[in-house]
Amino acid sequence: MKDFKALARAQWKGFWRDKQNWFWLLAFPLMFLFLFGFLFKDAGASKSEIAVVGDVGFVQEMPADAKKQFNELFDTTSYKDRDAALEAVRKGDLDGAVEGKGRTLVLHYSGADQVVAAQVQGTFQGFVQSANIAVSGRPPTFTLKPTQVEDEALKPIQFLAPGLLGWAVAMGATFNIAMPMVTWRTNQLLRRLRLSPVRIGSLISSRMLVSFTVAMLQTAIFLILGVTVFGLQLSGMWWLALPLILLGTLAFMAVGMLIGAVSKTVDAASGLANVVLLPMAFLSGSFIPLDQAPDWLSTVSKVLPLGQLNDGMLDVMVRGEGPSALVVPALTLLGFTAVFGLIAAKLFRWDDKQA
User: Fold this and answer.
1) What pLDDT band is residue 264 in, cutting at 50, 70 and 90?
2) CA nearest 109: which of 101, 126, 98?
């Protein structure tokens, strides 16, 4: 126990005094949180921008309640010049242009952006159908009541924060063991520790304590900034993410041990860690949601440790699911820990002369 405390204190001081650790493991992931957080802060309130060409009776004579809803969905600009309005749509400056021809409404849109075109057509068509029903005097046979399954105040940051936090934890755990492992081996520190009375269990467990502490610090800072700056709303079971983050830290420590075991220099370990983690972050939905991704990409995400970590955190922090949602991610992360840990132990070297 005495050697464990001494090693843990020494390793924490070494981590704390290296300012690069704090930049790459904390400040760098937070830069992405702020970047994506501000980019998507008002994503839910986006409106379609359309031109109203000339006098369009449908828009001008709309009832007050319909007009209010119309203004919530569209930003309108009046144009007298039809050609100028169509040119603005063609350039992408406007999402559409509407003009009236007798009892017919003509909506002009650009086919260059299919998503925007479908959005403005669908929204405008809904208003036209509602107006036709109102004019006919017949009550609608069916009504649609769209209801979001999550909290209505759900913002993109609540989907982005778990993914970015998962990436930060993965980076912290991987780099926090791969780089020191190579450094200690190349400067003969591992060899000297092997010859000392220090037990290997104390060395590993003290490193685990440092990595767990860093992961919890990352989590605390991410959540505090997410809640106070971007209005992140956590579900009642959000705290279940904490044990999953510790399991994720274990899994990526095993990945870091494997990288440290096969790398001969610190630069090689850093490069290999980036080659492993960066593509994994994209494939696991850390930067972009995979809801609209192809099926094969969603399947790949489920077999990656970061994909399991992100999915589990999303379930308990945002979707409000309970402990049962963590069973598969937890078992998967433990499996990765065992497999990568065994391979790393097989390839481990106390010094470069063993190679």
Assistant:
1) confident
2) 98
